[in-house]
Write a structure and sequence with these properties.
This protein is of the alpha/beta class. Helices cover 42% and strands 16% of the residues. The structure holds nicotinamide-adenine-dinucleotide.
Length: 283
C-alpha cells in the first residue's frame, strides 16, 4: 500500500483557523499582531519568502511592517534598526533574513534582537528555551513545523524511536530537542555517522534535514515508518525535491511529507503563530 501523504496544507489550514480566532480576540482588545520583516539587499530568495509570509500574515488578519535596507548598509545602521524594532511596541515579532551580506557581523545582529520578539528562533535565548523546554523565545519555525505535522496527523511520539538526519542549529538540533520534549527516544545522524542506513532503518519516526537531494534512499527505510522530509533542493531541471528519494520511500513507509507541499507549507504558518503568541504576551 502506498504511504499516506502528510500534506502541509491541511496542517497550515488548521493552524491558520486557530490563529484567525486568536487575532480577532486580540483586535477586539485593540492589538493587531504585527511582524516586522527586516531585509538587507534584494536577494530573490528573501523577496520570495517575504511575499509568501506577507500573504499568509495578511490572510489571517495580522500585519506586516517591511524594513528594507540597502545591501551596503553599515553594521551600526543595521544594529540601530534592530534596536528600533525591539523598542517599537506596535511590532510583536521580527524576522531577519540571513545570510546577511559578508561585510556584516551576523552574530552581533542575532544577539541584538530581543528574544521576546525572536519569532524565527535565531537568538541564543530562543535556542536556550528550546533546549531547556521553557517558554523563552521561540523554536526555529522549520523545526517546529515538523512536530506540528506529527501532532496534526496524530502520530504519537511517546516512547518511539526517532532519528533526525542533520545537526544544524536551524533544523536538526532543535527538531531533536522538540521530539525529545514529546517523549521520543531520539538519535541524531550526521555526516560522520557510521552505518547510517541501519540506524535510520531502525527508527519509527525519521526527520531528514541533510540539505542534499537523495541523501536518504530506499536502503535507509523500512515499513511502518513516518518520514518528515525537510529538504528543499532544486534539480537541474528546475524542479523542487526533498532530501529523501520519494519514489523509493513511498512504496515502503507508512507516511511521508511531499516536497513541495510538506514542511515548507507549514513553516510560514508557524512563524505567524509565533507573532500572534508574542502579541498575546505583550498585553
Ligand atoms: P545545513 O546544510 O545547515 O545542515 C545540514 C546538516 O545535515 C549538517 O548537520 C550536515 O552534517 C548533515 N548532513 C549533510 N549531508 C548528510 C548526509 N548525507 N548524511 C547525514 N547527514 C548529513 O542545512 P539546514 O539549514 O539544516 O537545512 C536542511 C535542509 O532543509 C535543506 O535542504 C534546506 O533547504 C531545508 N530547509 C527547509 C526549510 C523548510 O521550510 N522546509 C527551512 C529551512 C531549511
Amino acid at each position: 500500500m502506498p504511504a499516506t501523504l502528510l500534506k502541509g496544507k491541511d496542517v497550515a489550514d488548521a493552524l491558520n483557523a486557530k490563529m484567525s480566532a486568536d487575532i480577532e480576540a486580540l483586535k477586539a482588545k485593540g492589538v493587531v499582531p504585527t511582524l516586522a520583516i527586516l531585509r538587507v539587499g534584494e536577494r530573490p530568495d528573501d523577496i520570495s519568502y517575504e511575499k509568501g509570509a506577507t500573504k499568509r500574515a495578511e490572510g489571517v488578519g495580522a500585519a506586516v511592517k517591511n524594513v528594507i535596507l540597502p545591501a551596503d548598509v553599515s553594521q551600526d545602521a543595521l544594529l540601530q534598526s534592530v534596536r528600533d524594532l525591539n523598542g517599537d511596541k506596535s511590532v510583536h515579532g521580527v524576522l531577519i533574513f540571513r545570510p546577511l551580506p559578508k561585510h556584516l557581523d551576523e552574530d552581533a545582529v542575532r544577539r541584538a534582537l530581543d528574544p521576546a520578539k525572536d519569532v524565527d528562533g535565531i537568538t541564543d535565548g530562543s535556542l536556550a528555551g528550546v533546549f531547556a523546554g521553557t517558554e523563552q523565545g521561540y523554536p526555529p519555525c522549520t523545526a517546529q513545523a515538523c512536530v506540528e505535522i506529527l501532532d496534526y496527523y496524530k502520530i504519537d511520539c511517546k516512547g518511539k524511536r526517532a532519528v533526525v538526519v542533520g545537526r544544524s542549529l536551524v533544523v536538526g538540533k532543535p527538531a531533536a530537542m522538540l521530539l525529545t520534549g514529546k517523549n521520543a527516544t531520539v538519535t541524531i545522524c550526521h555526516t560522520r555517522t557510521v552505518d547510517m542506513p541501519s540506524v535510520v532503518k531502525n527508527a519509527e519516526i525519521v526527520v531528514v534535514a541533510a540539505g542534499k537531494a537523495g541523501a536518504v534512499t530506499g536502503e535507509y527505510l523500512s515499513p511502518g515508518q513516518t518520514v518528515i522530509d525537510v529538504g528543499i533542493n532544486m534539480t537541474d531541471e528546475g524542479k523542487l525535491t526533498g532530501d529523501v528519494r520519494f519514489d523509493e520511500a513511498e512504496p515502503v513507509v507508512a507516511a511521508i511529507t511531499p516536497v513541495p507541499g510538506g514542511v515548507g507549507t507549514v513553516t510560514t504558518s508557524v512563524l505567524i503563530s509565533h507573532v500572534v503568541d508574542a502579541a498575546k504576551k505583550s498585553l
